[in-house]
Each structure stands twice: as C-alpha cells, then as structure tokens.
Design brief:
four-stranded mixed beta sheet, Butyryl-Coa Dehydrogenase, subunit A, domain 1, Butyryl-CoA Dehydrogenase, subunit A, domain 2, oxidoreductase, AcylCo_DH/oxidase_C, 382 residues
Length: 382
C-alpha cells in the first residue's frame, strides 16, 4: 500500500539535495539564466555528490536508488532552478531506454560509462514534425546487407545535446508501419555522421542546453539496437511512464519555491499601512499555492511508488505530470501577481520562475497529450 512516509535514508538524501540547491544552485541560477551559459562545473559537482544518475543499477556502477528517491531529489533541485534540474535529471531519461530495453552487454557498456566518469547521455525522440506524435517520426534506419543499419534523420528539442557523449534515440524501419516500425538505438557522439545543430534560444530554463541532433549516414551496428527492431515504440512509452513522475517532482519544487518567495515578500511589502499578507486577496493566493504543492507532491510520490512497485502506472504518471505542471504555471503566475510590478522585473526571482514553469507543460508530452492519455485510460478501464 502506498505510504508517503519518508525514511531516514531518504531524509539524508533530501538534505544533501536541499543543501546543494540552496548553497550552490540558487546563488548562481540568475546569472546562468541571464547569460544562457551551460554550468558544466556545477553539473560535475552534482555528479560527484551522487545527485546525477541516481537510478542506475548497482550492477553497472550506479547507486541503485528508487524512482521515488530520484523524484525527491528532483523536487529539491527544481526548487533551486528548473533548468539546472532538467539537465541534471535528464541523464536519467537518456539512460532509461537502455534500462528498459537494453541487453546486459549494452547496459554494462553504456551505463557503465555514466558511472565511471562525468558524462551526459541525451534522449533523442522528438523531431521537427513529430513531437507528441511519436509514431509519425521520419528518422530512418535502413538495414545493410551483411548486418548493421544506416541511420538518417533529425532530432529536435534534445536536452543536453551539445554536451552529451551518448545518445539514445528512436527511428523507423518503415514509416508505413507507424508505431510498429519504431526502433530504439544507442550511438556515440563521436560516431561518423553525428552532429549537433545550433543551441535554441528559449523563454525559460536557459541554463539547460537544447539543440538538434543530426544523423547523416550513421552506421549503427546490430549490437547498438535496443530490443527488437520494430518494438521501440513500447520502449518509448515505458520510458515516459517511468520519467513523467520526475517532471511532477520538479513542478512541486517550483511551486514550493513560489510559495516561499511569495510568503516572504507578503510579510515585507506593505500597502495601506500593513503587510500585504494581511489582505485576504493575497492570503487566498498563498493558500492555493500550498494546496497545489501538497497535492502535486502526493501525486508524484504515488506515481513513483507505483513505478517502484512494478504496477501499471501510465494513468498515474500522466495524472501527476499534468496536474503538477499546470499547477506550477498557475503558482508562478500568481507569484508574479503577489509581487506586482516588481514581479515583472528580473530583479526578483519570480519572473524567472514564471518563465521556467511553462516548459513543464510541454516537454515529455504536453498537458493536452496527458489529458488524452488519461481519458483513454479511463475509457479502457485502466
């Protein structure tokens, strides 16, 4: 039975992540947002502290922590900066196709690299014309005579693309087969024909790198195909079921940051001779933020618990991701409102929280797509 109680070990883990967020992330988050620079050394520190790759199995050199453990860390990092959290925790997303569909040899080789040294692995699924429509992808794997494959295609919106040493991705062996043609693969950044496009200029989460990955006649040996050819769609869906609770966790952290910043400001800022926190209009906003945080936290924890318990969790993961992302955008909007004109300036942190929150409703399946997944699950009796 789901129990939201945090163990002593998890409390220690939380404290490490919280300290890192408060002491290392928050003081520099504004600078990296303004300059749009990639804080490589900060990410290296996170790797050295054990805050990256937390769910890699111990058999491949990882910590072997649970999905719930990873989500608790993600909440704390999201409190510090959603963009920095995205790049740190995206290594988990990039590793998941190997964890879900890889052979023991593939896991030992590729996951072992992430444990041995500081390295990024990116998840290359979306395309210019196929984001949420995974089955509509055009990247093509063509079978070679005598074995192996040739990969051609373009992937878009790829987190950490410019800095990754490994890419896990998906391509079709036949576009006419739709989802039944999707095939998963893993490839080294240094493979001939692999290149990276320009870095995207984004509204928010600017410390996180986002760019295209281009594949031009890239040779993919059979041993770099994950699972069976044509079965990659199911790997992708399993990946999203396991990764979406972490988006909910990041959203919960951002909501909590909005609440803390708003409460602090509401006690300092005075109008009509009293702190604005004395006004009922502000109190209603703060109460709604607190409700959203508690609900988001419980939802991502339950979704993560179901992943760890091996339960069917597509519906729960989508519920957690959708609700928490929408709640984070509302909390950030309301935080700007609490700050008034000051909230609209870069001098105060809520302006950045407002911009960072929006992406939570878009990546790894938009809020609209989550609602479709939820509705279809309900109609199927999930």
């Amino acid at each position: 039975m789901f129990n939201p109680t945090i163990s002593e070990e998890q409390s220690q883990l939380l404290e490490t992540a919280r300290k890192f967020a408060v002491e290392r992330i928050i003081p520099v988050a504004h600078e990296y947002d303004e300059t749009e620079k990639f804080p490589t050394e900060l990410f290296r520190e996170a790797w050295e502290l054990g805050l990256m790759n937390v769910e890699l199995p111990e058999a491949y050199g990882g910590l072997g922590l649970s999905t719930l453990d990873g989500c608790l860390i993600a909440e704390e990092l999201g409190y510090g900066c959603a963009g920095i959290e995205t790049s740190i925790m995206c290594n988990h997303l990039g590793a998941l196709p190997l964890m879900v569909g890889g052979s023991e040899e593939q896991k030992d080789k590729w996951l072992g690299r992430l444990s041995e040294d500081f390295e990024f692995i990116s998840y290359a699924c979306s395309e210019p014309d196929a984001g949420s429509d995974v089955a509509g992808m055009k990247a093509k794997l063509t079978k070679k005579e005598g074995g192996g494959w040739i990969l051609n295609g373009q992937k878009r919106w790829i987190t950490n693309a410019s800095h990754a040493g490994i890419y896990t991705g998906f391509a079709t062996i036949d576009p006419a087969l739709k989802h039944k043609g999707i095939t998963a693969f893993v490839v080294d950044r240094n493979a001939k024909g692999v290149s990276v496009g320009k870095k995207e200029k984004k509204l928010g989460q600017r410390a996180s790198d986002t760019a295209d990955v281009l594949f031009e006649d890239v040779e993919i040996p059979d041993e770099q195909i994950l699972g069976e050819p044509g079965k990659g769609f199911y790997i992708a869906m399993e990946v999203f079921d396991k990764s979406r609770p972490m988006i909910g966790a990041c959203a919960a952290g951002l909501i909590r940051r909005c609440l803390d910043e708003s409460c602090k400001y509401a006690l300092e800022r005075k109008t009509f001779g009293v702190p604005i926190g004395n006004h009922q209009a502000i109190q209603m906003i703060l109460a709604d933020m607190a409700i959203s945080y508690e609900a988001s936290r419980l939802m991502y924890m339950k979704a993560a618990w179901e992943v760890d318990a091996g339960k069917k969790r597509t519906l729960t993961s989508s519920l957690a991701k959708c609700f928490s992302a929408d709640a984070a955008v509302k909390a950030a909007t309301d935080a700007v409102q609490v700050f008034g004109g000051y909230g609209y300036t870069r001098e105060y942190p809520v302006e950045k929280l407002y911009r960072d929150a929006k992406l939570l409703q878009i990546y790894e399946g938009t809020s609209q797509v989550q609602r479709m997944v939820i509705a279809r699950g309900l109609l199927r009796g999930a």
